[in-house]
Amino acid sequence: MCNNKKDRPLFVKINNLDNVAIAVKPKGVEKGSTISENIKTIEFIPQSHKVALKDFKSGDEIIRYGAVIGYAKEDIPKGSWVSEDRVILPKAPALSELPIGTRVPKSLPPLDGYTFLGYRNSDGTVGTKNMLGIVTCVQCVEGVLNIAVEKIRNELLPKYPNVDGVMPINHNYGCGVAIDAPEAVVPIRILKNLALHPNFGGELLVVSLGCEKLPPERLLPEVGEENIIVFQDEPGFKPMVDRIVQKADEILKRLNKRKREVCPASDLVVGLQCGGSDAFSGVTANPAVGYAADLLVRAGATVMFSEVTEVRDGIHLLTPRAINEQVGEKLKKEMAWYDHYLELGGVGRDANTTPGNKKGGLVNIVEKSLGSIAKSGSSVISHVLSPGEKVKPDQKGLIFAATPASDFVCGTCQLASGITLQVFTTGRGTTYGLEMAPVIKVSSRTDLSEKWKDLIDIDAGKIVSSDATIEEVGMEIFKLILEVASGKKKVWTDYYGIYNAICLFNPAPVT
Amino acid sequence: MCNNKKDRPLFVKINNLDNVAIAVKPKGVEKGSTISENIKTIEFIPQSHKVALKDFKSGDEIIRYGAVIGYAKEDIPKGSWVSEDRVILPKAPALSELPIGTRVPKSLPPLDGYTFLGYRNSDGTVGTKNMLGIVTCVQCVEGVLNIAVEKIRNELLPKYPNVDGVMPINHNYGCGVAIDAPEAVVPIRILKNLALHPNFGGELLVVSLGCEKLPPERLLPEVGEENIIVFQDEPGFKPMVDRIVQKADEILKRLNKRKREVCPASDLVVGLQCGGSDAFSGVTANPAVGYAADLLVRAGATVMFSEVTEVRDGIHLLTPRAINEQVGEKLKKEMAWYDHYLELGGVGRDANTTPGNKKGGLVNIVEKSLGSIAKSGSSVISHVLSPGEKVKPDQKGLIFAATPASDFVCGTCQLASGITLQVFTTGRGTTYGLEMAPVIKVSSRTDLSEKWKDLIDIDAGKIVSSDATIEEVGMEIFKLILEVASGKKKVWTDYYGIYNAICLFNPAPVT
């Protein structure tokens, strides 16, 4: 990587083994520009796209991040644009042949003394917000619940200034679904764990229609009757709304008394995600987040990275980092589950990349994977969670939380797994935000953060556009995490209230 | 059926062939009550559950609606409760053996002179509301769009009193999905047809992130650039909101000038659905709606019934009503598609019934199906639509629109198919409502309509609780349809604004 260079380079190369480099300038690099002593571009290279650093023969390995991202489909002369149509996708690594725990990273030195102000819960978790959550058993109740929530927002919340908000957990599940299908465990687990999120302070309020397939006793057997509102037991619309508002008022009174207290950074549970990625994501934002992830792990925190279809093609770089056989095998099992799921739907692994990724210079899922994995930093992988599985209080360190890569579905799954803050990198730019936990948005390019001043929280683009190092930006992210988790600083999405809906992952049929 | 009886019966029997009858009294029927001359109940029968009218031997056919709903699992003495655990599910009718068009009903006499006041569109469709619809290409944009919509509601709508509302078409689709999977045609078709709904007056406003898999040119190639807002082209959050509000203002000005005009009832497109069904649904509400459906067909209108998993077990009663071979074959094709879809998910056809159905006395999907089909009335089936396929202006009469049975998914699919009003029957009670088109809620039991005075629009329960006939209630529904479609009367869900979210049917994988 070309860090610390005072004269801005036209291209960056990530790893010494790489035989391609990435065009840095926002408007691309003109034909005839000098790359290095004996290489000139022989055609225009768009920003964040790749230039050939050698003469490729058809079939030659194309190497980025020190790993093979594909093979030359034809001869590609030095200085050419290595565009999508000139690259053949390599085979996915065979799961059966993956080495487990063969390159377990050494523990990084502990990082002591970092704290944040959080809401400590009785189950040992620590919240970063103080919210009233209202979980629904079924989509049917959404219309009435939304009216009640509006009333709570307007009439009750002003009385309780210590409460950050009220959130109905609306979703598309609960009835008209194959509730006993083998894969129905996934959406039910996600929904249950969302209801138990640390930012709801251990309070539970459940809204049920009364005839749904996912009744309260199946969703949350631990909830007492006094916290369940069943519409079919109420004498009409207005009593339904009144009941919700009245129960909300009781809970808000308790929530309003809660106070933030000093907690060690090890009480943080941070999710990492990327969306609208470009070829810079793997050069600037993801490596900087990876550095921040290492800092969090050193401070004893829990860090989750996710997105199965984005790590699938780099899985041979992850299984060697598994702490033990069991963790390695669970990693492989989650990959195999997704392979099968996609196969049932009649699609291959290239279903992941988007038109935006490709415009952004990512030729295929392998290149996208390698960039995406950079977010995970360099720690040992200590645990693996299935989609929406809740992290246990003693599961610290770097965790792979298996989820779809879809931004809004991954966000929902990570919330269910218990993240209390998310760091989200973007290259093309997205307005994505979560209500249940703050999202720090990190841009891979400086021009994006300049254009979207009121959406991007940290510019990692300065790693190529200025003289910032990955380590500096990584530390900046780490410190912002502590500030945001403490409620001292608001991320843009919380400032404006830009929130995506809860999107459950349901791999089972609807009926 | 026991209509016109001044002395309320304890039980009702639908068809002369039936060997079971349904308990009518809200609190059930006590042991020892007289059913008929030589039959007494020998145990308590809960309301809407079945009593044996003969001595069943193990394996005997149990007949309701004149059709086999199951087989006795054990000997069931006359006067017993025919409960779920005493009934064996019959095999699903084999699709290959179904007769097509063998019992095509004769045309009913035309019904002239009925009209409503609608918004006529240039494509020949007629709206029942005058709304601004804003379609999104991808979930990612929802957070910003919702903020803009709130602004439109508060600042613009008061200036345009002829406009009924503004509706963002938010959904879970557009990215992080296998957009080229064979079944991706389904959600894309639904979304496209929602955008083109008759109640949006032919106006289109599209919001895109810019890097999604479902870009505007793929979703709606017919839309001009001037009606597409791409967030990644905008310099930040506030300009995004401003652009949406400004475009909305332009469209609202035009919509506000529209006037309702007298249209023949044949311009109506009415969807039929049931949810939270009980054993009364098939006795009161569904047959009354079936009568209304016949009136609509006689008036030349378009009527859709749906819910594949609810008609699957009564399909042998539907294919004979198909107008021709082609329609019959498409009916079978839609059933076969769903059989395969459920099989892939590892579930059988009994995945449909809900705990509420069972509490409501429906022992299995066959009994539920037969009751559900009653909504379709007695007309010939003139067309079949795939999920979310848009009805053509010349497709009149009774149509089977294939959809999941899930209330909120079926509602979304029927809207995409072009319904401008829905009639929804319920036994257990649901607060379900659609924003895009009015929903008339019909209760199967009088006690429900008395309990939910501010949610149920018509009580069909009076067919057993009072001396109303199916025909009278059917005519009452028909007339209410015309009034509601004219904007003269508001259904309860529109009065309070109780609306369920758009829930796309996506049988393809997410990535």
Structural descriptors:
disordered N terminus; alpha/beta; 511 residues; four-stranded parallel beta sheet; Ribose 5-phosphate Isomerase B, Chain: A; 3 domains; Archaeosine Trna-guanine Transglycosylase, Chain: A, domain 4; homodimer; 15 helices
How would you explain this protein's 3D organization?
The structure is a homodimer of 511-residue chains. By secondary structure, chain A is of the alpha/beta class. Chain A has 3 domains: 11-90, Archaeosine Trna-guanine Transglycosylase, Chain: A, domain 4 (Roll); 117-256, Ribose 5-phosphate Isomerase B, Chain: A (3-Layer(aba) Sandwich); 268-289 and 299-467, no CATH class. In chain A, 29% of the residues lie in helices and 17% in strands. Chain A contains 15 helices and 22 strands. Chain A has helices at residues 142-156, 185-195, 216-219, 237-256, 285-298, 308-311, 315-318, 325-344, 355-359, 365-373, 407-417, 446-451, 462-465, 470-485, 492-496; strands spanning 11-12, 20-23, 34-36, 39-40, 50-52, 61-64, 67-72, 87-88, 115-120, 126-127, 131-136, 165-169, 206-208, 228-230, 261-264, 269-274, 302-305, 381-385, 397-401, 421-426, 439-443, 458-459. In chain A, strands 18-19-17-16-20-21-22 form a 7-stranded parallel β-sheet, with helices on both faces. A 4-stranded parallel β-sheet of chain A has the order 12-11-13-14, sandwiched between helices. In chain A, helix 1 crosses helix 4 (237-256) and helix 5 crosses helix 14. The radius of gyration of chain A is 24 Å and the shape is globular. The N and C termini of chain A lie far apart (52 Å). At the A-B interface, helix 1, helix 4, helix 8, helix 9 and helix 11 of A face helix 1, helix 4, helix 8, helix 9 and helix 11 of B.
